[in-house]
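Dear Dr. H.,

I hope your travels went smoothly. While you were away I took the liberty of generating a structure for the chain from your last submission, since the lab meeting agenda had it listed for discussion. I wanted you to have the full record in hand beforehand rather than looking at slides cold. The sequence, exactly as received, is reproduced here:
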Amino acid sequence: MGNMNTRIYIRLTFEEIELIRSRMELCGMRNLSAYIRKMALNGYIIQMEMTEVKEVLRLLKINSNNLNQYVKKANETGSIYLEDIMELKKSQGEILQKMGCVLDRLSGIM
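The corresponding predicted structure, in token form, is as follows:
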């Protein structure tokens, strides 16, 4: 059959073209047709649910605030309460578990 070329025409907004060009430059490519062809043939799309990541971030913020409060209390009173340390340890364990789930899902994508 030989070397038969077929053209495909698509409509893009100016913003889409600029985004494509910036991504192309990040890859070190200069030929737009070659970049689009490579992405169409070999590229893939990652679609992630960010709910789990947002939950981990929320828990980290809470834990960080609690730690700051415990440090403030320790500075004021000169002592640290075992219950406070155990609560921090429990929260940290929950954060690590949720982050592990997020990482497992990410590794399944890649």
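Two observations you may find useful: Residues 23 and 29 are 9 Å apart (CA to CA). The chain has two domains: 1-43, 51-109.

With kind regards,
E. W.
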